[in-house]
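stuck on whats below:

***
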Amino acid sequence: PSLMGCKVSGSTVGVKENTSVASSFTTYPNPAKDMVTLEFSTASKLGNNSSYTIYGVQGNEILHKDLGTVNANTSENIDISSLSTGFYFIKVSVDGVVSTKKIIKN
């Protein structure tokens, strides 16, 4: 595709992460050995259709779970004891809005 006719005025092109979802959950401990806790911390109901997926660094899906409705202070303990030591990504989806964070398995 051609970019002919497009005007660029000093802006950066990229993918912006949805900070409302990214700031609404934390994962700890990180790094972790056997368990990771996924905790939602927003003060109100987040969504009715929530899930998480853990991916390897090559993009292979390792674990997926539908969570249903998540509210403030909802937490989910995730058993990662069977995973090999290394880096993984956890993708959290809340009503179709997605955010991804890195987790480290020791």
